[in-house]
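Dear Dr. H.,

I hope your travels went smoothly. While you were away I took the liberty of generating a structure for the chain from your last submission, since the lab meeting agenda had it listed for discussion. I wanted you to have the full record in hand beforehand rather than looking at slides cold. The sequence, exactly as received, is reproduced here:
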Amino acid sequence: MKPADGDEILRENFAPWVLELGLVVEKVGEGSAVLRLPWSDRLAREGGGLSGQAMMAAADTGVVVAVAGARGGFVPMTTVQLNTSFQRPVMGRDVLVAVTISKLGRTLAFADVTLTTDGDSATVAQASAVYAIMG
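The corresponding predicted structure, in token form, is as follows:
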């Protein structure tokens, strides 16, 4: 699957508020994906750091794109669990969201997500996700 296909999955299957995050699919492999969450003052919280909610939404969205890459296209799915640990604040930097599918079954997918700042690759958050595949 090409990054453009991942961008199409975003446009056609996600709510407007998710699209407003400005996510860009940079890479989609068989069981992996990398998305860019561009810095925006709109996504910053008091004090100037990128909000955790925006990073969690980006991680959640990245898993959908990675599962679609592993399955050869989008299928309906829903989040069962998303567990995120934040390690450091993000100030004025894009975030790269790297997803690796650790297990893809018929009805469940398991993924690990690492969020890093663009440029210095400092890990800012890590997440694990479980998805129910409904189609």
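Two observations you may find useful: The chain has one domain: 3-133. The CA atoms of residues 105 and 133 lie 9 Å apart.

With kind regards,
E. W.
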